[in-house]
Amino acid sequence: MTDQLTPTTTGAMHDGHGHDATWTDLAKEMWSYLTGQGAAINYSFVDMAVEVPRDTGPEAPRATWKLNGTLRITTEDQQHAGSGT
Prior knowledge:
Helix content is 14%, strand content 39%. It is mainly beta. The strands form 2 sheets. The chain has a 3-stranded antiparallel beta sheet.
């Protein structure tokens, strides 16, 4: 990885340049690192429910998504797409 994110004693993440990093930054860094390496991330869910707001605001009605199974996320390097490497 070009810019490694490092945890602090408070649990915050820093990007090595003195900037606070977010979970989004961590996900982008991980995606960049895994792309082209044939890596996959597997998440297994058993009776998981996620409430998703249908609109904005604290009183917005919610849609409930139920997850039961495996979600597999893979990355691909466009330069090597379809080559199996």
